[in-house]
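wait is this the right file?? whatever heres the structure
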């Protein structure tokens, strides 16, 4: 009995989304549209930057959920 060397590929496989590089999408959004998406808890930010992001978010969108 001969077995094909290629694994079976489901017909639905082509409908599965490709994984997205979220950081690349955020980078392109800023570079092309000046849209900034930032998590106030991003470890790359220092305390003052996190506080600025939090205050901007609250000013523009209202009180956010408390983390903590």
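ok assuming it is, sequence goes like this
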């Amino acid at each position: 009995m001969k077995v094909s060397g290629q694994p079976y590929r489901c017909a639905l496989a082509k409908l599965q989304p490709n994984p997205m590089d979220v950081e690349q999408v955020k980078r392109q959004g800023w570079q092309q549209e000046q849209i900034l998406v930032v998590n106030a808890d991003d470890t790359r930010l220092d305390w003052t930057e996190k506080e600025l992001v939090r205050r901007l978010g609250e000013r523009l969108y209202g009180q956010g959920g408390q983390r903590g």
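The mean pLDDT is 88. so i think its the right one actually
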